[in-house]
C-alpha cells in the first residue's frame, strides 16, 4: 500500500487541478465584461489567429457592435456565439467546445501525460529489477541476465 500512496496523491492533484481549471467564474458580470468575454473567444474572419476583441479590422468592429447589441437585447453569451457560428462557421471559435467529440482536445493531452508517466514508471521498475542496486555490471552481464529471465 505504501508504494501506491504517491500515485494516489498524484491522481488526486490531477483531478483537483482539472476540476479547478474547468470551473466557471461565479458572480454577475457587467455588459462590457460579457462583450469582452464573447469577442475574446471569437476569431476575426479576416485576420489570422486574432480575436475580434484584439482586431482593428472593420469586420471585427462590426462583430463587436453586433455582440454588444445582442447581449443588450437579452441573449446569452452562448446564444451569441451560436449566432456567430451559424453566420461564419465553426472555425470562428478560438477555443473548441469542451464537450462531445471536440472535448477530446482538452482531455487527450492529460491522458497522454498520464500514460507516458505510467510507462516510464513500469520501464524503470523493470530496469531496476534486472540487477541489484550499486552493481558494477557490464553490458554483457545485463544481456546474460535478460537471457536467463527469458
Characterization of this structure:
The protein contains six helices and no strands. By secondary structure, it is mostly helical. The protein folds into two domains: 28-95, Orthogonal Bundle (Helicase, Ruva Protein, domain 3), CATH 1.10.8; 103-149. Helix 2 (31-40) packs across helix 3. The radius of gyration is 26 Å and the shape is elongated. The protein starts with a helix and ends with a helix. The mean pLDDT is 81.
Can you give me a brief rundown of this structure?
The chain is mainly alpha-helical and 150 residues long. It is built from six helices and no strands.
Topology:
Elements: H1 5-21, H2 31-40, H3 58-72, H4 77-88, H5 104-130, H6 139-149
Whole-number total of structural domains: 2
Structural class, by secondary structure, is mainly alpha
Beta-strand percentage? under 5%
**SS summary, helix count:** 6
Runs with pLDDT <50, length 5+? none
CATH architecture of the largest domain: Orthogonal Bundle
Sheet of most strands: none
**What series of H and E elements makes up the topology?**
HHHHHH
Q: How would you describe the oligomerization state of the chains in this entry?
A: single chain
Shape, per Cα inertia axes: elongated
Helicity level: 55-70%
Task: State the end-to-end CA separation.
Answer: 29 Å
Radius of gyration: 26 Å
Q: Return the CATH topology of the largest domain.
A: Helicase, Ruva Protein, domain 3
Q: CATH top level of the largest domain? A: Mainly Alpha
**CATH homology superfamily name of the largest domain:** Cytochrome C biogenesis protein
> How many strand elements?
0
Task: Give the overall average pLDDT.
Answer: 81
Amino acid at each position: 500500500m505504501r508504494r501506491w500512496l504517491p500515485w494516489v496523491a498524484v491522481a488526486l492533484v490531477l483531478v483537483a487541478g482539472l476540476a479547478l481549471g474547468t470551473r466557471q467564474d461565479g458572480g454577475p458580470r457587467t455588459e462590457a465584461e460579457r462583450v469582452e468575454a464573447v469577442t475574446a473567444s471569437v476569431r476575426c474572419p479576416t485576420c489570422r489567429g486574432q480575436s475580434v476583441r484584439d482586431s482593428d479590422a472593420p469586420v471585427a468592429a462590426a462583430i463587436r457592435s453586433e455582440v454588444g447589441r445582442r447581449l443588450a437585447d437579452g441573449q446569452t453569451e452562448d446564444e451569441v456565439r451560436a449566432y456567430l457560428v451559424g453566420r461564419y462557421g465553426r472555425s470562428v471559435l478560438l477555443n473548441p467546445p469542451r464537450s462531445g467529440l471536440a472535448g477530446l482536445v482538452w482531455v487527450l493531452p492529460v491522458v497522454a501525460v498520464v500514460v507516458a508517466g505510467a510507462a516510464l514508471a513500469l520501464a524503470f521498475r523493470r530496469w531496476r529489477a534486472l540487477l541489484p542496486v550499486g552493481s558494477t555490471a557490464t553490458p554483457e552481464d545485463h544481456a546474460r541476465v535478460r537471457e536467463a529471465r527469458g
